């Protein structure tokens, strides 16, 4: 087993572990966001009830509750934006994993001597190459989407 093959295999395992850890961190953050959403919903419901039920309360109190409600809406919108970004990151990780798998398959076909390749091998190699290009294009679309989103936020 040549050294370069061992190095490639080690790097593939390392990048797979990095993607796995990143996916776990994203999943944890999505769960945290879900919990925070529920908490914000409960707080918002309480504030709405206070605003509807307390018609006799002072105007200052009404203004304070309204400001709190607007603050909760702003927090919720920020969390929704973060959740959207995380979902894009999840898609990007899936495509990255798919690309690595296709790279590995393609490399195995390309490492074969041309004289040893069957017509089926050549056809499979071309199909994998086609799939690889599709995955790269999908990743490019995601990156463009993120860039457009970033620019629109500025």
UniProtKB/TrEMBL annotation:
It is found in: Membrane. GO terms for molecular function: monooxygenase activity. Residues 23-50 form a coiled coil. Transmembrane segments: none annotated. Residues 13-154 form the BMERB domain. Keywords: Coiled coil, Membrane, Monooxygenase, Oxidoreductase. The keyword Lipid metabolism does not apply. The keyword Coiled coil applies. SMART domains: DUF3585. This is MICA1 monooxygenase. It comes from Sylvia borin (Garden warbler). The gene is Mical1.
């Amino acid at each position: 087993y040549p050294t370069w093959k061992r190095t490639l295999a080690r790097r593939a395992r390392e990048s797979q572990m990095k993607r796995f850890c990143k996916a776990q961190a994203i999943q944890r953050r999505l769960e945290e966001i879900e919990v925070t959403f529920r908490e914000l919903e409960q707080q918002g419901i309480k504030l709405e009830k206070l605003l509807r039920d307390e018609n006799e309360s002072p105007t200052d109190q009404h203004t304070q509750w309204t400001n709190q409600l607007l603050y909760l809406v702003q927090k919720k919108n920020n969390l929704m934006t973060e959740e959207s970004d995380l979902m894009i990151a999840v898609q990007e990780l899936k495509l990255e994993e798919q690309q690595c798998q296709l790279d590995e398959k393609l490399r195995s076909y390309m490492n074969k001597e041309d004289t040893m390749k069957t017509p089926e091998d050549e056809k499979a190699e071309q199909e994998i190459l086609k799939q690889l290009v599709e995955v790269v294009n999908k990743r490019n679309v995601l990156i463009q989407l993120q860039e457009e989103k970033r620019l629109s936020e500025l």
